[in-house]
């Protein structure tokens, strides 16, 4: 609170991000402890959570005031013009302070109160139970068991307490192997394929340097191999480009020497590191944020950003993994450097392709809890929850969501959830409103007592799951084959407009078939109910006429629309892709929303000279 | 000439067909005068391929030992491969296909031989006559007239016999204007905007030449379309530079001094070989699945296809904006007035006029703005993306138009009565068809070929309810408003239904599409049922009421009747509307 220097600024202009003629809305800017709020003259509200702010920039003073540009982690960009520089300065400084949190305890999640009682809070955290999940996979079994080696985080701080390892891997082997792996992240089970008896295992890179070897680690891999009765060999996937892995050898790290490990098939898959991904996204956003962008600049920018190339690399790696398991019944060990970024991407996508459970709403939550949260993907560092090292920021999780979106585009009926679900999760990974994604690993989360002090996101998403249900989902989609085999030819990968331009309404289709179908299938359920009621009523009428029933009927046939109830946790958020969009936009939309109109706006201003006309044309064509 | 002369080997057994995305099939290949027919040997469920020779864009052959392979690339962008045992047979067949697919004479084309297997309910040749269009117009304004000055095609060889022009211009003046415009294409009415009485006209470039010739009748004609004190816009689809260069060849543009009430705007839309090359590059990029991401994106960019889409859409939006927002009349022309001009005028109408978004309205638009307006289909669609003979006149002008319509359709998926399949069907028939509709380059040629007597119209076939069912958009809901599409590069997409159609499995997408239909149909069914039950219940209530009335109770049943159309739907009010409309539609079907 002490950071807020000014709570209200009037006559602030909100500029249209893509307009070249400085079209704007005028309104009042409010600063609260958690949000920045802009209310324009037509009472439309724009809420921005402080934690969502990635960068605030004050541009040089102009005649109309002092421009303030705010970039958000959910790819919203707002451009304000504050009339007085002093106010702008105050807002700027306040936001700088508010958006950079030094301590976890200051994050929104610790003050956020959704009016749940304690038992609801506890129940919420118990919604996802990973022990249950391993049981679902068929673990423990004859080959795999729960190990208590990491019960007290003694072997690996960034792993969860409960780890599943081959039965033949004794404690000394585990300890020895963990000493030979970067950050102690030794090979453990991530997913078990019941039918093929093959496993996806994960770890970090070995500390092999140029020649070091470790017998326990070799035994560990052998134990994984042997835990799979259907195949004698196993794959080791190093998800890094070969060059990076080789460079790591100089630092005493590196990759497995095939000569030292019996029966392994070693494979590089070439996903770039977090720094490359960060700058790739940076470039992508620069391109897509350009005013008056031409098609060729867009496509060449898309190409040079490399973003889609990276997404394809991630999915290609997952496809490789899945083939090893589904076709060869071979177990696969996946690692990168530390085993918490690329490894999480590949393991989770692999499991998603193999197991239809992860394509349900609940299953997807489980998948994220398992491969991302519990195995120590550094959400805090990657999403910059606290003011920290900017070099640790990277859109690794965003890439995972984008890969899933690409799969949804190819298999529209295979997923129970829809795009809005992915966008909402992305929103909350960065919002710090719920405890799930806070911190970098389970140990840290326990120390923060998140389960007592914060709330879990998942029950809130389940409460409003109607919004996230895919109306086209068919649970028995290709029943003989729960396996998804995506086509990763380049032309299948598209720019994810709804993610990167989520808040730029003018770019989206004005009518959405998807929303209509969603509403329609929701309505169908209601109609089915109505029919039953009506039939019952008619039956009754035919039996014994009674006027009272009629009144009841009128009430019960029109229940309050469920979707209209605003769930408490999202009250202050802007709708993502609003469910009701189709309604508001059924009309023709506005020319003013579009770029080609800029020219006309100027044109219509009292009798322009021919010169300005040519100028306008030039601008329109560029 | 007998086709038999061209067919050296009419039949080859044991041939193997490799189609796109399906396993190889062994079977028999037959050549007829107009078709390549392949039928697999299996008796039950055997597949047959009937390929129109006119659809073949290019034929390639290669040999491995005595096994010959013919690769056939079609104008609809499909590529099929035939393995034919025996070198001689293979060579014969290849050369026959080549000869049959490049027949010189139009009258040898299939439409002149095609006999329909269906009963013609409505003769498509008479479906969209200019006189009918004019009738619609004269119900709202009397400032225009039909002129028959061109009835023998002497004033303008590429215009239809009757055109709509301002009432105050007599045929004599018209002839003078025709001399002043390239190819005699004087300004004619293209579209009348009922909302504000503004109009869109189209023509070809004026022949001002280097010495700035003028034509008083021309000035009078286009000024006649302006309201007193109002101004208009001339949208020139060439860049200023190109327009200026055209003067050296006798062409040019309207000079400000002589047309003071008009503002000229140049919007550059590419033409001819640039577009053709763009299509060739795009299809090449789409057909190579081995491209890595960078290569694919750079090839997509290098094709410039989406750039052309954006240019055309932007120009069309501008024209629409001048008319609807500025309340100004518009004259559109490029140089010939047969290509980019028509793209702009027809797309502007899609944006402005709800009628053009219905099936019949769109057909009328194609007839009016493309066929009668003299877009040279025969020249432009002679070859498609696989042509290796570099001829000068081929260009995917019409395909670009259809692509632009698809882009708008994608952004307003409920505002069109037709679906994507309808647009794809038009693309196919423009390049190769059993119907005579797209034959010839203009009405003059068509009347000489006596197409209306000798061939069947595409519309006679499409407008039968059996066919229409495939082309109807189940989500269509008449939207009477102007629809402004976004032209941002992020909003434009590659038309996968055409360009990736043969290159990627579509099973899952097709199934999803089917599911969409199921949901919609199920919804209609349920709506109808609920309404029927409500009515039944209401009747029962009425009976009760009558009995009760006898006893003196207040009637309340009217609540139900009022309540029923306003049925609360769980999500939004949009469906309150739909729920009233849908059952009615269902009944119509």
Automatic annotation (TrEMBL), chain A:
Belongs to the protein-tyrosine phosphatase family. Non-receptor class myotubularin subfamily. It comes from the Eukaryota. Residues 517-544 form a coiled coil. PANTHER family: MYOTUBULARIN-RELATED, MYOTUBULARIN-RELATED PROTEIN 6. Residues 124-500 form the Myotubularin phosphatase domain. This is Myotubularin related protein 6. Pfam families: Myotub-related, PH-GRAM_MTMR6-like. One of its GO terms (cellular component) is cytoplasm. InterPro entries: MTMR6_PH-GRAM, Myotubularin, Myotubularin-like_Pase_dom, PH-GRAM_MTMR6-9, PH-like_dom_sf, Prot-tyrosine_phosphatase-like, Tyr_Pase_AS, Tyr_Pase_cat. The active site is at 336 (phosphocysteine intermediate). GO terms for molecular function: phosphatidylinositol-3,5-bisphosphate phosphatase activity; phosphatidylinositol-3-phosphate phosphatase activity. Substrate binds at residues 273-274, 336-342. GO terms for biological process: phosphatidylinositol dephosphorylation. Signal peptide: none annotated. The keyword Coiled coil applies. Keywords: Coiled coil, Hydrolase, Lipid metabolism.
From TrEMBL, chain B:
InterPro entries: Myotubularin, Myotubularin-like_Pase_dom, PH-GRAM_MTMR6-9, PH-like_dom_sf, Prot-tyrosine_phosphatase-like. Residues 509-550 form a coiled coil. One of its GO terms (cellular component) is cytosol. Its main location: membrane. Pfam families: Myotub-related (PF06602), PH-GRAM_MTMR6-like (PF21098). It is a peripheral membrane protein. Keywords: Acetylation, Cell membrane, Cell projection, Coiled coil, Cytoplasm, Endoplasmic reticulum, Membrane. It is found in: Cell projection, Ruffle membrane; Cytoplasm, Perinuclear region; Endoplasmic reticulum. One of its GO terms (molecular function) is protein phosphatase binding. Residues 124-499 form the Myotubularin phosphatase domain. GO terms for biological process: negative regulation of autophagy; phosphatidylinositol dephosphorylation. It comes from the Eukaryota. Gene3D superfamilies: Pleckstrin-homology domain (PH domain)/Phosphotyrosine-binding domain (PTB). PANTHER family: MYOTUBULARIN-RELATED (PTHR10807), MYOTUBULARIN-RELATED PROTEIN 9 (PTHR10807:SF56). Belongs to the protein-tyrosine phosphatase family. Non-receptor class myotubularin subfamily. This is Myotubularin-related protein 9. It comes from Cairina moschata.
């Amino acid at each position: 609170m002490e950071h807020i220097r000014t709570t209200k600024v009037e006559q602030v202009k909100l500029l249209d991000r893509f307009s070249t003629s400085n079209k704007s809305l005028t309104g009042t800017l409010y600063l609260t402890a958690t949000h920045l709020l802009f209310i324009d003259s037509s009472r439309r509200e724009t809420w921005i959570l402080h934690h969502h702010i990635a960068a605030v920039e004050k541009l040089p003073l102009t005649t109309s005031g002092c421009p303030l540009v705010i970039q958000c982690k959910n790819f919203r960009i707002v451009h304000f013009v504050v009339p007085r520089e002093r106010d702008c300065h105050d807002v700027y400084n306040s936001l700088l302070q508010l958006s950079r949190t030094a301590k976890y305890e200051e994050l929104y999640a610790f003050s956020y109160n959704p009016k749940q009682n304690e038992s609801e809070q506890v129940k919420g955290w118990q919604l996802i139970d990973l022990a249950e999940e391993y049981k679902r996979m068929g673990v423990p079994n004859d080959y795999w068991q729960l190990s208590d080696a990491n019960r007290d985080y003694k072997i690996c701080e960034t792993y969860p307490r409960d780890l599943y390892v081959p039965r033949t891997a004794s404690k000394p082997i585990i300890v020895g192997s963990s000493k030979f792996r970067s950050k102690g992240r030794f090979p453990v089970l991530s997913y078990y394929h019941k039918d093929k008896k093959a496993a996806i295992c994960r770890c970090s890179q070995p500390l092999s340097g140029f020649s070091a070897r470790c017998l326990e680690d070799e035994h560990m891999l052998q134990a994984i191999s042997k835990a799979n009765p259907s195949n004698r060999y196993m794959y080791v996937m190093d998800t890094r480009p070969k060059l990076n892995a080789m460079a790591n050898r100089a630092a005493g790290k590196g990759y497995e020497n095939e000569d030292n490990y019996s029966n392994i098939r070693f494979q590089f898959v070439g996903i770039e590191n977090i720094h490359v991904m960060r700058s790739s996204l940076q470039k992508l956003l620069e391109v897509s944020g350009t005013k008056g962008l031409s098609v060729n600049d867009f496509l060449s920018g898309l190409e040079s950003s490399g973003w889609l190339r990276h997404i394809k690399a991630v999915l290609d790696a997952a496809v490789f993994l899945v083939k090893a398991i589904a076709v060869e019944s071979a177990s696969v060990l996946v690692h990168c450097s530390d085993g918490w970024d690329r490894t999480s991407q590949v393991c989770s996508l692999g499991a998603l392709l193999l197991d239809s459970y992860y394509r349900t709403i609940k299953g997807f939550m489980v998948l994220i809890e398992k491969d991302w949260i519990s195995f120590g993907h550094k959400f805090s560092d990657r999403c910059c929850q606290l003011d920290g090292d900017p070099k640790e920021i990277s859109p690794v999780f965003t890439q995972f969501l984008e890969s899933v979106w690409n799969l949804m585009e190819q298999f529209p009926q295979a997923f129970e959830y829809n795009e809005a679900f992915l966008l909402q999760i992305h929103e909350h990974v960065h919002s710090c409103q719920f405890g799930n994604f806070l911190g970098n690993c389970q140990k840290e989360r326990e120390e923060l007592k998140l389960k007592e002090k914060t709330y879990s996101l998942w029950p809130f998403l389940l409460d409003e799951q109607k919004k996230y249900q895919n109306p086209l989902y068919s649970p028995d989609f290709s029943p003989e084959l729960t396996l998804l085999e995506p086509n990763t030819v380049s032309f299948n990968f598209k720019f994810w407009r709804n993610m990167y331009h989520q808040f730029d309404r003018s770019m989206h289709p004005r009518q959405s078939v998807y929303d209509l179908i969603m509403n329609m299938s929701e309505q169908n359920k209601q109609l089915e109910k109505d029919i039953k009621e009506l039939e019952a009523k008619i039956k009754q009428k035919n039996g014994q006429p009674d006027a009272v029933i009629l009144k009841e009927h009128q009430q019960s046939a029109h229940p309050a629309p469920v979707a209209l109830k605003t769930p408490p946790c999202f009250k202050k958020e802007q709708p993502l892709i609003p469910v009701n969009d189709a309604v508001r936009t059924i009309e023709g939309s506005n020319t003013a929303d579009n770029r080609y109109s800029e020219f006309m706006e100027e044109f219509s201003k009292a009798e322009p000279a021919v010169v300005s006309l040519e100028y306008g044309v030039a601008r329109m064509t560029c | 000439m007998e086709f038999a002369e061209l067919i050296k080997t009419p039949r080859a057994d044991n041939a193997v067909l490799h189609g796109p995305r399906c396993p190889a099939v062994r079977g028999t290949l037959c050549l007829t005068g107009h078709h390549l027919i392949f039928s697999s040997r299996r008796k039950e469920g055997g597949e047959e391929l009937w390929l129109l020779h006119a659809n073949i864009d290019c034929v390639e052959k290669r040999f491995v030992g005595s096994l010959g392979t013919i690769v056939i690339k079609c104008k609809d962008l499909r590529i099929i491969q035939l393995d034919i045992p025996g070198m001689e047979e293979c060579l014969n067949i290849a050369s026959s296909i080549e000869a049959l697919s490049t027949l010189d004479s139009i009258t040898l084309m299939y439409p002149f031989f095609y006999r329909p297997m269906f009963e013609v309910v409505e003769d498509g040749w008479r479906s969209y006559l200019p006189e009918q269009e004019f009738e619609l117009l004269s119900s709202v304004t009397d400032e225009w007239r039909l002129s028959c000055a061109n009835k023998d095609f002497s004033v303008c060889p590429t215009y239809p016999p009757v055109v709509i022009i301002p009432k105050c211009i007599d045929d004599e003046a018209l002839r003078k204007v025709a001399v002043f415009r390239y190819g005699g294409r004087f300004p004619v009415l293209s579209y009348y905007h009922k909302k504000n009485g503004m109009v869109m006209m189209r023509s070809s470039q004026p022949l001002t030449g280097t010495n700035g010739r003028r034509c008083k009748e021309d000035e009078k004609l286009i000024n006649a379309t302006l309201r007193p004190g109002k101004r208009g816009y001339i949208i020139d689809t060439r860049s200023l530079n190109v327009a200026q260069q055209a003067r050296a060849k006798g062409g040019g543009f309207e000079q400000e001094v002589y047309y003071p009430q008009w503002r000229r705007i140049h919007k550059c839309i590419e033409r001819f070989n640039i577009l053709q090359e763009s299509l060739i590059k795009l299809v090449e990029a789409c057909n190579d699945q081995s491209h890595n991401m960078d290569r694919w994106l750079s090839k997509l960019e290098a094709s410039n296809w989406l750039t052309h889409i954006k240019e055309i859409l932007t120009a069309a939006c501008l024209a629409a904006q001048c008319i609807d927002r500025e309340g100004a009349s518009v004259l559109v022309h490029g140089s010939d007035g047969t290509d980019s001009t028509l793209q702009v005028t027809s797309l502007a109408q899609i944006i402005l006029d709800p009628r053009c978004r219905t099936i019949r309205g769109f057909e009328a638009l194609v007839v009016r703005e493309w066929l009668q307006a003299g877009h040279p289909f025969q020249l432009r669609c002679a070859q498609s993306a696989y042509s290796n003979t570099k001829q000068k006149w081929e260009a995917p002008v019409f395909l670009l138009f259809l692509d632009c319509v698809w882009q708008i359709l994608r952004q307003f998926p409920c505002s069109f009565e037709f679906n994507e399949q309808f647009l794809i069907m038009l693309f196919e028939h423009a390049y190769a068809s059993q119907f005579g509709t797209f034959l010839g380059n203009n009405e003059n040629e068509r009347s000489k070929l006596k197409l209306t007597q000798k061939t069947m119209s595409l519309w006679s076939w499409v407008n039968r309810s059996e066919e229409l069912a495939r082309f109807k958009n189940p989500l269509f809901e008449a939207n009477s408003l102007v629809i402004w599409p976004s032209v941002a590069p992020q909003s434009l997409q590659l038309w996968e239904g055409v360009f990736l159609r043969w290159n990627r499995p579509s099973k899952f997408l097709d199934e999803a599409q089917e599911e969409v239909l199921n949901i919609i149909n199920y919804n209609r069914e349920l709506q109808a049922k609920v309404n029927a039950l409500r009515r039944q219940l209401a009747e029962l209530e009425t009976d009760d009421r009558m009995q009760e009335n006898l006893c003196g109770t207040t009637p309340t049943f009217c609540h139900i009747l009022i309540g029923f159309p306003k049925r609360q739907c769980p999500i939004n009010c949009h469906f309150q509307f739909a729920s009233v409309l849908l059952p009615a539609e269902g009944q119509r079907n």
